[in-house]
Sequence to fold (225 residues):
Amino acid sequence: MRIPLGRLLGGRSPLPRAGRLMTRVVECTDRVPELIEHLLAGDQDRVVSVAKEISRLEGKADETKNDLRGGLPAKLFLPVDRRDVLRLVSQIDAIADCAEDLGVLLTWRKMETPEAMRALLRIYVERVLDTVQTAKQLVDLLDPLMEVGFGGKVVDQINQQIDEVARKEHEADKVQDQISKTLFSLEQELPPVAIFMWTKVLFAIGNMANHAENVGDAVRLIVAR
Fold:
């Protein structure tokens, strides 16, 4: 009879617990569309309010991350390198950090969104958060991976999902390229500080997708062991 590996370890495997951290992180990123809509509406008070809520949620994610790291034994009785688990945890956590960074940036000054960027900004955020959600679906597969003892069809599912995360991140990159070109086409119309701030905002948004792709790379290292 096959005994689930997680049961052999007393339910203390760090991999399923990474799923709890990812859930906390997505609670942060789920607030980003609302943040952007308030930005587009020019409602700075609501921007500040949502940014504070994202920071609060990021704090909850940090608590979950610290609990996970604190409970990680020096040696794992798994076909997984401890450093690979820590790398995965770090990349998941970085997604929430980027969401918080975005919120903080938008509280520095009230920003006007050029008309030429508005539709692209919504698409960009949608593509980035789609990448994050796909990364969450990937991390959710780690629990079944433990159940089957790092084998079976779930490994194929995981590898396919890693490729899907990379594909989604590439789609987000293409929109980032479009909106960045649009921004710099307006440099004669916008003050330098606006160009500077928008550049930082676009990078903060895009970095959520970059770290989501890094989550995929970290999972690939784990299943390849």
Observations:
- The first helix runs from residue 5 to 8.
